[in-house]
Specification:
286 residues; seven-stranded mixed sheet; 10 helices; 44% helix; binds adenosine monophosphate; binds zinc ion; binds fe (iii) ion
Length: 286
């Protein structure tokens, strides 16, 4: 079976491989296509697509945006978008500014907790792209302050933990509209992070669909087989595309293999063909 990965991060956000390396790795791994979906930035996409062209490997432009959601984490992926769209880029810029304000506050909180960490150290591991919490986690691990990434998030960085700092986010509806306005197809990322029960999730997806959602990320590294089966049902019920990806971050998210997640992930190529068909029909020219 021909396999793909529609959820990856590069050094433009918080992945450890640069866009070129990512494409080369995908080809070497034997995948048939990958998408680059950096958080709040499209800076890596030119190089990513250019490399794909050069080595004749299918590359799909994408992005991952964070929206406001009280209960859990809400991420919306956007695919095939016109990432040079001026309005889109200016909105992204304000997200990036929000991050630039937030990161030093997280470091300050850690310092106040007595931890020897500096912003410079975090910048150094970020490779020059946009800084996110995984970079901070990596410094905490490398300095031996915590034993692994998960502990860094559990003990300090996750929502509700002592060094957590809220980031300004946009409403889910706005997030979907922003992707559609740039002619992309919006997809709900890793639904399990919403922390909703089945009934609430179904009601929420119905709302997202009315706002223009085009797909659900059904196959995901951390989804259980039961969750995957349920999300397939939901996608069918609401006539949404099914997508999937590993959320590969290289060294910045331990244990995840490109295309394979923790080892068992399999995202078939035909899902990409369907996604592309839907995009061409409903999103491309609007
Ligand atoms: P940020 O963009 O700075 O809010 O950080 C978000 C990134 O942190 C995402 O790539 C997540 O995969 C990662 N992340 C969020 N929560 C956790 C967690 N509890 N454990 C490990 N990684 C996490
Ligand atoms: Zn990330
Ligand atoms: Fe995400
Ligand atoms: Fe991600």
């Amino acid at each position: 079976m021909e396999l793909i990965d529609l959820h990856t991060h590069s050094t433009a956000s918080d992945g450890s491989f640069n866009p070129e390396e990512l494409v080369l790795l995908a080809k070497k791994t034997g995948l048939k296509a990958i998408a680059l979906t950096d958080h709040d930035t499209v800076e890596g996409l030119d190089k990513f697509l250019e490399t794909g062209k050069k080595i004749n490997f299918e590359t799909i432009p994408g992005v991952e945006l964070s929206a406001y959601f009280e209960k859990g984490t809400l991420h919306i992926l956007g695919y095939f978008l016109d990432y040079h769209n001026k309005t889109f880029l200016s909105r992204l810029k304000s997200f990036q500014e929000a991050r630039a304000e937030r990161n030093p506050k997280i470091i300050k909180k850690l310092q106040d907790l007595g931890i020897a960490i500096t912003y410079e150290e975090v910048k150094l591991v970020s490779g020059g792209g946009q800084i996110g919490r995984p970079h901070i986690a990596r410094v905490l691990v490398e300095k031996g302050i915590v034993k692994d990434f998960d502990t860094a998030f559990e003990q300090f960085l996750k929502k509700g933990a002592p060094a957590y700092v809220e980031k300004e986010r946009i409403e889910p509806k706005e997030c979907i509209e922003m992707i559609i306005a740039a002619n992309g197809i919006p997809v709900l990322a890793h639904p399990f992070t919403l922390h909703l029960d089945n009934e609430a999730l179904e009601a929420f997806i119905k709302k997202l669909k009315n706002w223009g959602l085009g797909g659900i990320e059904v196959y995901y590294t951390e989804h259980t087989p039961e969750q995957t089966a349920y999300y397939i049902q939901l996608a069918q019920k609401f006539e949404l595309c099914i997508t999937g990806g590993s959320d590969f971050h290289g060294k910045n998210k331990e244990g995840i293999i490109l295309g394979k997640g923790y080892g068992n992930l399999e995202v078939p190529y035909y899902l990409l063909e369907r996604l592309k068909e839907k995009w061409e029909k409903d999103y491309k020219g609007v």
